[in-house]
């Protein structure tokens, strides 16, 4: 249920309100609301695709009716936007940092997930979640090709994943130091 507030400036301040709803298929005045003084609050719950559209609110006092209504567009929220510019950094033999840029739309329950796979494998090896699209992954194997799927999640679903391929550094070469012992018998 959404609470939508309509406030007007009026003198005299005794104001009566009316609300209406409209979309491409329907228009009606069946909107539940309460009013007090210069403010009216509608309670509106979209239940199907037909419930999305525009709410209008007008105030009226003894001088006259508001010429242009307050307009509120009710749109369905969808899954979050796909992350942008996901890159790997600080690649070592055993760790990597994956960082992405989040979209401009932020909501309170947005979180970011990372799934790790061996390259060319469908078996997930690791999963983590974060309030920011930044991840440090450790305990990786040297010289191994990994694929990371990074995506945003909210209560309406998840974004398309962004894939980041990373190969950890190979083990460092060992220096060829040997010892030679001459034994005299």
Describe what you observe in this structure.
By secondary structure, the protein is mainly β. The protein is built from no helices and 15 strands. It has strands spanning 2-7, 16-22, 27-28, 32-36, 39-44, 53-60, 70-74, 84-89, 96-101, 111-118, 124-130, 134-137, 145-154, 157-158, 162-167. The strands form 4 sheets. Strands 10, 11, 13, 14 and 15 form a 5-stranded antiparallel beta sheet that branches. Strands 3-2-6-7 form a 4-stranded antiparallel beta sheet, with no helix packed on it. A 3-stranded antiparallel beta sheet has the order 1-5-4, with no helix packed on it. The chain starts with a strand and ends in an 18-residue tail after the last strand.
Mean pLDDT: 88
Contiguous runs where pLDDT drops below 50 for at least 5 residues: 179-185
C-alpha termini separation: 96 Å
**Helix content range of the residues, please?**
under 10%
Give the strand tally. 15
Rounded to the nearest angstrom, the radius of gyration is 30 Å
Q: How is the secondary structure organized here?
A:
Elements: E1 2-7, E2 16-22, E3 27-28, E4 32-36, E5 39-44, E6 53-60, E7 70-74, E8 84-89, E9 96-101, E10 111-118, E11 124-130, E12 134-137, E13 145-154, E14 157-158, E15 162-167
Antiparallel strand pairs: 1-5, 2-3, 2-6, 4-5, 6-7, 8-9, 9-12, 10-11, 10-13, 13-14, 13-15
């Amino acid at each position: 249920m959404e609470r939508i507030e309509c406030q007007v400036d009026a003198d005299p301040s005794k104001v009566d309100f009316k609300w209406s709803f409209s979309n491409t298929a329907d228009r009606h005045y069946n909107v539940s609301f309460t009013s007090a003084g210069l403010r009216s609050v509608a309670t509106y719950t979209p239940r199907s695709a037909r419930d999305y559209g525009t709410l209008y609110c007008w105030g009226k006092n003894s001088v006259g009716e508001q010429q242009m209504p307050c307009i509120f567009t009710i749109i369905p929220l969808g899954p979050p936007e796909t992350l942008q510019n996901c890159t790997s950094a600080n690649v070592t033999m055993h760790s990597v940092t994956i960082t992405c840029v989040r979209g401009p739309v932020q909501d309170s329950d947005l979180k970011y997930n990372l799934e790790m796979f061996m390259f060319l494998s469908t078996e997930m090896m690791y999963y983590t979640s974060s309030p920011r699209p930044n991840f440090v992954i450790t305990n990786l194997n040297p010289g191994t090709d990994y694929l990371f799927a990074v995506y945003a999640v909210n209560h309406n679903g998840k974004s398309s994943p962004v894939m980041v391929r990373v190969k950890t550094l190979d083990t460092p070469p060992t220096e060829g130091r040997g010892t030679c012992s001459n034994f005299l018998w």
